[in-house]
Amino acid sequence: MNYDSVLNEKIQNIKPSGIRKFFDILDEMTDVISLGIGEPDFVTPWHIRHAGICSLEQGRTKYTSNAGMLQLRREIAAYLERRFGLRYDYAGELLVTVGGSEAIDLALRVLLDPGDEVIVPTPSFVCYGPLTEMAGGIPKYLELKAANEFRLTPAELKAAITPQTKVLVLPFPCNPTGGTMDRQDLEAIAAVLRGTDIMVVSDEIYAELTYGRRHVSLANIPDMRERTVVVGGFSKSHAMTGWRMGYACAPKPIIAAMTKLHQFGIMSAPTTSQYAAVEAMRSGDEDIERMRGEYDGRRRYLVENLNRLGLYCFKPKGAFYVFPDIRSTGLTSDEFCERFLIEEKVAVIPGSAFGPGGEGFVRACYAASMRDIAEAVARLEHFVAVLSGN
Amino acid sequence: MEKLLELLERDCTMPVSALAAAAGVSADEAKAAIKQYEDNHTILGYQAIVDWDSIHKDTVTALIEVNVTPQSKDGFDRIAERIYQYDEVESMYLMSGSFDLTIIISGCTLRQVAQFVAERLAPIQGVTGTSTHFILKKYKEKHLVFQPQAPEEREYIFV
Hints:
The structure holds two protein chains of two kinds. Chain A folds into two domains: about 5-45 and about 285-385, Alpha-Beta Complex (Aspartate Aminotransferase, domain 1); about 45-285, Aspartate Aminotransferase, domain 2, CATH 3.40.640. Helices cover about 40% and strands about 15% of the residues of chain A. Chain A has helices spanning about 5, 10-15, 20-30, 45-55, 70-85, 100-110, 130-135, 155-160, 185-195, 250-265, 270-285, 285-310, 335-345, 370-385, and strands at about 35, 95, 115-120, 140-145, 165-170, 200-205, 230-235, 245-250, 320, 345, 350, 360-365. In chain A, the strands form three sheets. In chain A, strands 2-8-7-6-5-3-4 form a seven-stranded mixed beta sheet, with helices on both faces. In chain A, helix 9 links the parallel strand 5 (about 165-170) and strand 6 (about 200-205). The longest helix of chain A has 24 residues, at about 285-310. In chain A, about 50% of the residues are buried. By secondary structure, chain B is an alpha+beta fold. Chain B has five helices and six strands; from the N terminus they run αααβαββαβββ. In chain B, the strands form two sheets. A four-stranded antiparallel beta sheet of chain B has the order 2-3-1-4. A two-stranded antiparallel ribbon of chain B has the order 5-6. In chain B, helix 1 packs across helix 2 (about 15-25) and helix 2 crosses helix 3. At the A-B interface, helix 3, helix 12 and helix 14 of A face helix 2 of B.
């Protein structure tokens, strides 16, 4: 069988991530301190796990409604209003998905026609481009600048818009940079979008992980709700990555279209996970605060030490990543990560993996224990000293 | 600075710079605060939590409930002092409820515990009764689980 002729052309044209080679090395090594994987080091709080277990004990093992359990949608709607001042009708403007990723995929697939352009600010998480291509769209990468702390500026957006622009992806708080957009930044973006038909897929999976100011959604800005698909989830806020629980909120016609696709492809999100998610929404706010407090301390420690070692890093205000500039070492981000891994046994991710603008930076995730982070810093100090010949 | 105490209670072996960052203070402020806590005995000491059962199997941990007659002038304190000064006593608390004091003894053999109760504790003037319970298995102490699960085998993923 010639599989090249069997496989869809689009999927064949999507390049595998260059980072695979790096992971192959990593998989063979032991005793590595990993600041590589972008997921909480916490286990899902016990009361949430227990709610999942109880649902199984009670035999709650059937499909739920396509859009997700009513009680979960009610809880999510209440949570969004309580935490972010967002108002969505649980009965038609909210869809429970298999992680935030499914919501992004659905949103792009229901919005894009062949040839539509999607503005994807980078460095950012790697899924937006490939999902756009699979949905028939054309990703247009917009390189964010370190000098702006990797915010999207109105001038950059304006320059990227063409008559074919259909969607803007807004990935804030941002993986991998930790960059955030505050209300003022969003107002400026809104001023560019107002009067256009451009839709926004706002990936707010890290909304709970901001330090200092509370996260503001683009949908909070006047006139923006009608054009915004807010994507959220439980993975980062409640340490529930493996439960695969996410959601999308948008105006009714968009959610109706996404639900249509979701019901054919997925049917309904996993029932056990939905019961656990209900508990997370009802009683999980304190868990969020506790974990955010922990991340905040680690963030301060890591940023302080990176700057002390000459790897400039602005103080990121969101997510759980730092994105230091490693150009002073004279290495590319690939070389830096490979040597740091092999010589010091610490895993961080090359910035080049996150699209244009990532080269010269590396991503370190501080959702790791303070002990591991402190040891990683000690090893980094040695590594930097070796590189500079001291 | 209470945050600093919480962090130290969780892991007192962390470098001061890491503790300070986590508490949101400077390293010098953290050092000064720790010194003050040590001086005024808010921090009593630093110890490891050891799973002795994994080293030797013949020692036990006992929890002894003690009833005493409080003394008119010193209440329970005087008699408590007479008891806790024995090296065998690891921890001791004044309790509400149907008995007065709880004593915890660990690292001794069954015989040593029996000897302590019969020959040292019971004869103390004012001790009116004891009830000794032996711990059969330790699950968790100071938020640490004695037999944590083995790490799962996991391939690296890119998120």
